[in-house]
Amino acid sequence: MNDKELQKEIVYLKNKQNVTILAHYYQSIEIQNIADYLGGSLELSKIAKEESDSEYIIFAGVDFMAETASILNQDKRVLLPNPESCCPMAAYLDAEMVREYKKTHPGLPVVTYVNSTAEVKAESDVCCTSANAVRVVKRIAKEFDVNSVLFGPDSNLADYAEQKSGIKCIKMPEEGHCYVHSQISVDDFKRSRDLIKDGLVLVHPECIREVRELADFVGSTAQMYDRVKNSKIEEDNFIIGTEEGLIKRIAEDFPDKHIYPIREKLICYNMKKHTLELIKYVLENLDDPMFEVKVPSEIAEKAIFPLKKMLQIS
Ligand code: SF4
Predict the structure, then answer these.
(1) pLDDT tens for each residue of 29-86
(2) How far apart are the first and last CA of the chain?
(3) Interval between CA 177 and ligand 1 midpoint (Å)
(4) pLDDT value, residue 54
(5) In the predicted structure, residue 314 carries a pLDDT above the cut 80
(6) 242: Cβ below 6 Å to ligand 1?
(7) Burial zone of 261 (CB within 10 Å; 0-12 exposed, 13-18 middle, 19+ buried)
(8) Which residue of 115, 160, 244 sits with most ligand 1 atoms within 8 Å of its CB, as the best mutation to test the pocket?
(9) How far is the CA of 271 from the centre of ligand 1 (A)?
């Protein structure tokens, strides 16, 4: 089957069986185009919480996203088409490490990026995404009446949240990073700006500080999308510093704008482990336990609080 035939079959199977497909912007365009909902982590968390109609959610994203959907929907079956689709950044921090940080920094709230395991979330006071990290840090610091928080696992987002909030974000751990965004360098910025002189540079907060400080706009995937969507008529050229799935989405949705990647091959290979073939196979085998992501209830019961707190703040 070619992609068009696979997409047609997937749409037929999901409608027939009342399945919802959620896809992250970093999926291939072919997968994005068959999703019921497409978004960044924050929007997808909200949808996962509010989605009440279907018994099954197929999550075309990485494992922590499917775990979040499972925590927020304990009564639903959440399926990850490729069980090996995981986020290497989340692996920088485990629950035992968080417990140690709490011991050495008593009284400080724990803020964890949603890009973390369910066990880590269960040890946290509040979660955040790249879209709301600054607001979350300010709010929790005020609530705890402190000037510092523990923040993990992305050290670049911690640095960004600290810069913007004025609240010290102690990194859990120092070296946590996203291999996709942290590879964007000052040279990439200069090279693309030399090429497209009036190009507005939009980058993700997971980029290193030196790149963020040169950029015209720093925002989450959805915020970058909206920045182009709401741009002025004279803003023609955009240089985008994030995963190529979002860059392709923006180029397809706004054909009157010129969209350039800040560097070639910004690919999250972990996100790209899902394929149309796998999604079709899952739809034909919805009850195969191999695809189900189920967070144990004792972890989910704790992890739901920091997630709900984040959603209240957002
Ligand atoms: S883009 Fe980075 S943070 Fe997102 S899933 Fe891939 S490795 Fe993890």
Answers:
(1) 999 999 999 988 778 877 877 766 788 999 999 999 999 999 988 888 999 999 999 9
(2) 42
(3) 9
(4) 85
(5) no
(6) no
(7) buried
(8) 115
(9) 7
What pLDDT does 222 receive?
92
Calculate how far, in angstroms, residue 63's C-alpha sits from the geometric centre of ligand 1.
Answer: 11
Sequence spans of domains, the chain = 3-86+271-295, 90-177, 181-261
Q: Which of 68, 80, 178, 182 to mutate to test the pocket of ligand 1 (most atoms within 8 A of CB)?
A: 178
Q: In what order do the strands lie in the sheet with 148-152?
A: 126-128, 110-113, 148-152, 168-171
165: nearest Cα among 111, 116, 216:
111
> Same CATH topology for 3-86+271-295 and 90-177?
yes
What's domain 3-86+271-295's architecture? Answer: 3-Layer(aba) Sandwich (3.40)
Q: Which residue has the tokens 């800040």?
A: 262
Quote the CA–CA distance of 251 and 285 in Å, as a whole number.
34
Q: Which amino acid residue places its CA nearest to atom 5 of ligand 1?
A: 87
Q: What is the CATH number of domain 181-261?
A: 3.40.50.10800
Residue 2 structure tokens: 């070619």
* Closest residue by CA, ligand 1 atom 2: 178
Q: What is the CATH number of domain 90-177?
A: 3.40.50.10800
| pTM of the shown model | 0.94
Regarding the beta carbon of 207 and ligand 1, being less than 6 Å apart is answered no
**Residues 149-193: pLDDT tens digits?**
999 999 999 999 999 999 999 999 999 999 999 999 999 999 999
